[in-house]
């Protein structure tokens, strides 16, 4: 047994992950395609683990690339194979290709998961290209189960995606994926109808595609924020912040904001700023509780702050949650109040640089 610590270098390998919404979108094919281009440029490329699943086009695309043999493991009367990490470390290619990042290794193989094998390869200074489907991401497990009715057992921690040097979505339309499935390019003929009736239903594919695109957008946004100078805004995904008050029309405002978030496929945040020097009446307390309940029904996040300066508080929340759209109601202050103290809307506009402000007229008598 080779001691992997021998191969630790000062340079950690770079990790590029090809992400898809479902099997058959072309993640492995795209990975192999890029590997061929790099080989032509003189990069030493080897395949550490390839799963073709019987797909002819994928197998053909791998031709011309060196494949590091898998190691065989005897379990009972069965001979099983796994990626040979030690052989990869001995071979020391510049770039190694590893399919199915979320795979669980055979018990007794050493590391439990394939992504852990990949981390060992990266620690040895070897670059890795890998593939994974979005449903294998840990934080999305419950959402995927709710969408598809399938509980995904093999998962990777979110940090694997977060720590990757590059994440690429291999995207096709649900219609294209269904066509590939019917043509037998994803599963064997006897499995096609079952797949179409279950995981590959059109509504499932649409939702999974949105998850994949949104997850990578979030990943890109985090990178952009980390490299953006302080004070500058860099938001890729839309986020809606609704500002509610003790006025009954806040419920109307919240519903309008939730519709806006739905149209934009954006997360919803709702903020209520309470004056710490003033106690709420029972009716006002019940009203704010209703706002919080309704926010939960819209799957949003309710934020309550005790601040004297309402404008400053809203601006702080907008910055903290990286809001791109802020929704407020029309002012109920008199003209004299506006003249003496200034317009709330104007103050808010000055405080929300690079954020769109929606001022919604509501029926004051409706909740």
UniProtKB/TrEMBL annotation:
Keywords assigned by UniProt, alphabetized: Kinase, Transferase, Two-component regulatory system
Domain Signal transduction histidine kinase osmosensitive K+ channel sensor N-terminal: 11-219
Molecular-function GO terms, alphabetical: kinase activity
UniProt keyword annotation of Kinase present: yes
Name by which UniProt lists this protein: Sensor histidine kinase KdpD
Domain UspA: 238-351
UniProt xrefs under InterPro entries: Histidine_kinase_KdpD (IPR052023), P-loop_NTPase (IPR027417), Rossmann-like_a/b/a_fold (IPR014729), Sig_transdc_His_kinase_KdpD_N (IPR003852), UspA (IPR006016)
A Pfam family recorded for this sequence: Usp
Organism of origin: Geitlerinema calcuttense NRMC-F 0142
Magnesium in keyword set: no
Protein origin, superkingdom: Bacteria
């Amino acid at each position: 047994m080779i001691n992997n610590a021998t191969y630790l270098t000062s340079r950690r390998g770079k990790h590029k992950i090809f992400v898809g919404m479902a099997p058959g979108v072309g993640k492995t094919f795209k990975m192999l395609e890029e590997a061929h281009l790099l080989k032509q440029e003189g990069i030493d490329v080897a395949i550490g683990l390839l799963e073709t699943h019987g797909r002819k086009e994928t197998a053909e695309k791998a031709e011309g690339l060196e494949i590091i043999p898998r190691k065989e493991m005897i379990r009972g009367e069965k001979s099983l194979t796994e990626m040979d990490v030690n052989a990869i470390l001995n071979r020391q290619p510049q770039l190694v290709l590893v399919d199915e990042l979320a795979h669980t290794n055979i018990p007794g193989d050493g590391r439990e998961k394939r992504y852990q094998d990949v981390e060992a390869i990266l620690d040895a200074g070897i670059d890795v290209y890998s593939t994974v489907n979005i449903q294998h991401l840990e934080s999305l497990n419950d959402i995927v189960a709710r969408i598809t009715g399938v509980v995904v057992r093999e998962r990777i921690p979110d940090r694997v995606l977060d720590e990757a040097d590059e994440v690429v979505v291999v995207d096709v339309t649900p219609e294209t994926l269904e066509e590939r499935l019917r043509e037998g390019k994803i599963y064997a003929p006897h499995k096609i109808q079952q797949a179409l009736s279950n995981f590959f239903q059109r509504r499932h594919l649409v939702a999974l595609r949105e998850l994949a695109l949104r997850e990578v957008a979030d990943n890109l946004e985090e990178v952009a924020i980390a490299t953006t100078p302080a004070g500058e805004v860099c938001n890729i995904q839309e986020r809606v912040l609704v500002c509610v008050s003790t006025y009954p029309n806040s419920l109307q405002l919240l519903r309008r904001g939730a519709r806006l978030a739905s149209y934009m496929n954006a997360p919803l945040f709702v903020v209520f700023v309470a004056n710490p020097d003033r106690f709420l009446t029972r009716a006002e307390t019940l009203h704010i509780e209703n706002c919080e309940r309704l926010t939960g029904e819209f799957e949003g996040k309710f934020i309550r702050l005790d601040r004297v300066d309402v404008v400053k508080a809203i601006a702080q929340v907008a910055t903290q949650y990286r809001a791109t759209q802020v929704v407020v109601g029309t002012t109920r202050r008199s003209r004299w109040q506006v003249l003496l103290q200034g317009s709330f809307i104007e103050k808010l506009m000055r405080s929300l640089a690079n954020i769109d402000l929606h001022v919604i007229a509501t029926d004051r008598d409706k909740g």
